[in-house]
Amino acid sequence: MRVDWGSEDLRPQDCVTGRGFCILNFAREPLRAPGSTTLVCAALSTQGMVDTAKKNFGGGNTAWEEKTLSKYEFSEVRLLEIVEGLCEASDFECNQLLEEQEELLEAWWLRLKKKHPDLFEWFCVQTLKACCSPGTYGPDCLACQGGSERPCSGNGHCVGDGTREGDGSCQCHLGYQGPLCTDCMDGYFRSPTSETHSICSACDEACKTCVGPTNRDCGQCEVGWVRQDDACVDVDECAAEPPPCEDTQYCENVNGSFLVAECDPTCVGCTGKGPAQCRECVAGYSKEGGQCEDIDECSLAEKPCLRDNENCYNTPGSFVCVCPDGFEEAEDTCVQTRLAGAEATEASPTQPPSREDL
C-alpha cells in the first residue's frame, strides 16, 4: 500500500524518524526523534488508554447510554477523545498525517481490533509497510543475525532493527565481537550466567588477555606491567636508572605508567611536589623546617645595603636597596632632599616601594 505525503512517498525510515505514523501497540510511550515530528503514538499508547479508561459518555445516565449507544469502552466517542490528544496543536505534520489516516484508524478501532489486537503490527508493518517488527529488518522484514527473539545474541544492535532498511548485521556492544557478538574482545573474559548464556567481563587492568578477574588470571600482561610470581605487577618506571625525567622534574609512578612534573621553583632537583621535596634550595632560599624557605637578607647581622641612609626590602629569593622618601641616590649615599619636619609624600619610607618603583 502506498501512502502519499504531499509530493513524497512514505519512506521505510519514516518509522524511525517519526513521519511514518507508527503506533506502538498500546503499550509504548511516545517517542521523539531528533529533527523530526512527534512519533504518533502518544494517545494510542498505554497513557492514552489509561486517560480514558474510567470515563463514560458523560450524559449522567451511564447505564442507559451504554445500553443504547453500546459500551463507551469500544465506542467511536472514546476513539475520538483519544485521537484528539494524539498531536500537539502546533505539530502540523503530525496533524496532517493523522487526518490522512483517520479512516484506517477508525476501521481498526471499530471492526479489526479483535482480529488484529497489535495495532503496530497491523498498521505500520502489514498495512503501511513502513516498519518491521522488532528483531527484523529490511524491505522483507527478515530476521536479524541471531534471530528475531534475541538479535546479536543480546550483545549488540541489529543494523536496521524495526525498519525497512539496514542489512541485519550486528554492531556489538563493548567487550563483544564476532558475527553474532558471542566472542569476547581482548581485555575481556567469558563469565557464564547460565547453561546457555555468558557475558564478557573486563579483565584486571594488569591484563591484556585473561581467563578470570584477577591479575593472576592474565594470559598476557598489559603494557607497563610485568609477570612476577605468576601475576602481572606494575613496573615502577621511576626506579629506572637513569630516571625518565629531567633534573628540574620529578617522576611519579602510577599503575601501568608514570607521570612527570616540574619541581617547585625553590628547588634544585626534587623527589616530589612542593618545597618540602627539594633536594637542594635555589639561591636566596635555605632549608627551614624541612622545606626551602626564603632568606630575609635584610634581617641578617651583616647588612646587605651599604650606602648611608639606604633602606633594605626583602623580596622572594632576593632583596632590594632603595633610598627612602625625601632622599635621592648619589654615588655612595642617599642624599636628603627635604628638610626634617617637611610634609611627607604619600609614600611611606618604612614600606617597600611598589614593583614599578623597584
TrEMBL record:
Q: Does the keyword RNA-binding apply?
A: no
Q: Which residues form the EGF-like domain?
A: 140-182, 294-335
Which Gene Ontology molecular function entries are recorded, alphabetically? calcium ion binding; protein disulfide isomerase activity
List cystine links: C172-C181
- The organism of origin for this protein: Bison bison bison
Q: Which domain of life is it from?
A: Eukaryota
The EC code for this enzyme is 5.3.4.1
> What protein name applies here?
protein disulfide-isomerase
* Record key words, sorted: Disulfide bond, EGF-like domain, Glycoprotein, Isomerase, Redox-active center, Repeat, Signal
Q: Per the UniProt record, which residue ranges are transmembrane?
A: none
User: Which reaction is this enzyme known to catalyze?
Assistant: Catalyzes the rearrangement of -S-S- bonds in proteins
Q: Which family does it belong to?
A: Belongs to the CRELD family.
